[in-house]
C-alpha cells in the first residue's frame, strides 16, 4: 500500500447552527484564537505528513481558498511598512490543494462529499477523512492524525474514538467494538444503560479507496441522509478491518455556539 499523504476534508455545510454569522463567513473559517477552525485540521495533517488536500466546498465558497493562497497585495503592504517578520503568518499552504464543489441541491449527508473526492484517490491508496468544523487539540503540538495513521495497519481502515462520560454517551453515536478492538457498527444516541461502549464517533477516519468509492452507492438512511458511517459499517460487516483508535487530544467542536466559545477558551488559555 502507498504511504498516506492525502486528506479529504468536507466543508460544504451551511453552518445553520451558527447563523446569522455564517451567512457571510464560511463555517470552517470561524476564528478560534487568531486562526480559522479549518487551519487546526490542516496543520495537524501537515504534521502527519499529509501533502495533498481535497477540500469539498460549497458553491459559494471563496474564503477558504483565499486563506491558503498567496495575497500579493498584502505581502507588498507588509514589506512597505517594514513588517516582513509577519510574512510567515500569511504564507500560502505548502501542499497540493484541490477544491471540489458539492452542489447545494441533490444528495445530502457525510458520504456525499467523500464520494465526490474519490477521483483524487488512487486504487492502491488510503486517505484521511476529517470534517472541517471540529479538530483535535494537543497542547504539546503533537499530531492526532499522525497517531491515527500510525495505528492503522497497511490496507486497513480506522476510526478515531473519543471516550466520553457514561452519562453523556446518549449525545453521540456509540461505537460497537469487538473483542479484537475493531469497529462493528455505530448505535446512534443510545440510552446510557443500552450503550455498547463509552466510545463516541467524532468523524475522523483513515479509509481505503474501496470504502471511499462505496460512498457513491450506499442507500439513504432512515433519516433521509447518505451517511459515511453506513459505508464503513458495510465494509466492516463484510469482513473488512476497521481499527478503533482511542483519541489522545481534546476534541473541540466549532459547529455550535457553545462549542465554538469553549474551543476559543481552551486554545487561548482562558
In brief:
24% of the residues lie in helices and 25% in strands. It has helices at 37-47, 63-68, 72-80, 111-116, 144-150, 209-214, 228-237, 257-267, and strands spanning 6-10, 31-32, 35-36, 52-57, 96-101, 126-130, 134-137, 157-163, 173-177, 183-188, 199-208, 242-246, 250-253.
Distance between the termini: 44 Å
Kindly name the structural category: alpha/beta
**Which spans of ≥5 residues are poorly predicted at pLDDT below 50?**
none
Q: Provide the β-strand percentage band.
A: 15-25%
CATH architecture: Alpha-Beta Complex
CATH class: Alpha Beta
Describe what this molecule looks like in 3D:
It contains eight helices and 13 strands. By secondary structure, it is an alpha/beta fold. The chain has a single domain (6-267), classed as Spore Coat Polysaccharide Biosynthesis Protein SpsA, Chain A (Alpha-Beta Complex). A seven-stranded mixed β-sheet has the order 5-4-1-6-11-8-12. A two-stranded antiparallel ribbon has the order 2-3.
Give the topology, please:
Layout: E1 6-10, E2 31-32, E3 35-36, H1 37-47, E4 52-57, H2 63-68, H3 72-80, E5 96-101, H4 111-116, E6 126-130, E7 134-137, H5 144-150, E8 157-163, E9 173-177, E10 183-188, E11 199-208, H6 209-214, H7 228-237, E12 242-246, E13 250-253, H8 257-267
Parallel strand pairs: 1-4, 1-6, 4-5, 8-12
Antiparallel strand pairs: 2-3, 6-11, 7-13, 8-11, 9-10
Amino acid at each position: 500500500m502507498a504511504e498516506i499523504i492525502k486528506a479529504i476534508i468536507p466543508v460544504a455545510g451551511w453552518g445553520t447552527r451558527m447563523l446569522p454569522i455564517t451567512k457571510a463567513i464560511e463555517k470552517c473559517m470561524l476564528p478560534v484564537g487568531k486562526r480559522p477552525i479549518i487551519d487546526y485540521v490542516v496543520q495537524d495533517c501537515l504534521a502527519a505528513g499529509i501533502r495533498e488536500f481535497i477540500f469539498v466546498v460549497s458553491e459559494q465558497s471563496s474564503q477558504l481558498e483565499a486563506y491558503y493562497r498567496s495575497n500579493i497585495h498584502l505581502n507588498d503592504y507588509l514589506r512597505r511598512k517594514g513588517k516582513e517578520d509577519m510574512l510567515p503568518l500569511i504564507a500560502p499552504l505548502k501542499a497540493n490543494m484541490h477544491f471540489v464543489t458539492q452542489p447545494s441541491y441533490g444528495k445530502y449527508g457525510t458520504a456525499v462529499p467523500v464520494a465526490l473526492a474519490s477521483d483524487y484517490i488512487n486504487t492502491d491508496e488510503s486517505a484521511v477523512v476529517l470534517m472541517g468544523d471540529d479538530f483535535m487539540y494537543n497542547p504539546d503540538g503533537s499530531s492526532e492524525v499522525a497517531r491515527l495513521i500510525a495505528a492503522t495497519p497497511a490496507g486497513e481502515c480506522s476510526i478515531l474514538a473519543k471516550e466520553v462520560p457514561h452519562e453523556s454517551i446518549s449525545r453521540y453515536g456509540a461505537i460497537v467494538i469487538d473483542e479484537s478492538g475493531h469497529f462493528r457498527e455505530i448505535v446512534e444516541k443510545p440510552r446510557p444503560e443500552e450503550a455498547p461502549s463509552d466510545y463516541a464517533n467524532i468523524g475522523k477516519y483513515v479509509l481505503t479507496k474501496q470504502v471511499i468509492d462505496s460512498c457513491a452507492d450506499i442507500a439513504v438512511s432512515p433519516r433521509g441522509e447518505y451517511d459515511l458511517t453506513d459505508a464503513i459499517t458495510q465494509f466492516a460487516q463484510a469482513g473488512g478491518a476497521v481499527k478503533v483508535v482511542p483519541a489522545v487530544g481534546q476534541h473541540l467542536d466549532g459547529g455550535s455556539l457553545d462549542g465554538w466559545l469553549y474551543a476559543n477558551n481552551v486554545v487561548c488559555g482562558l
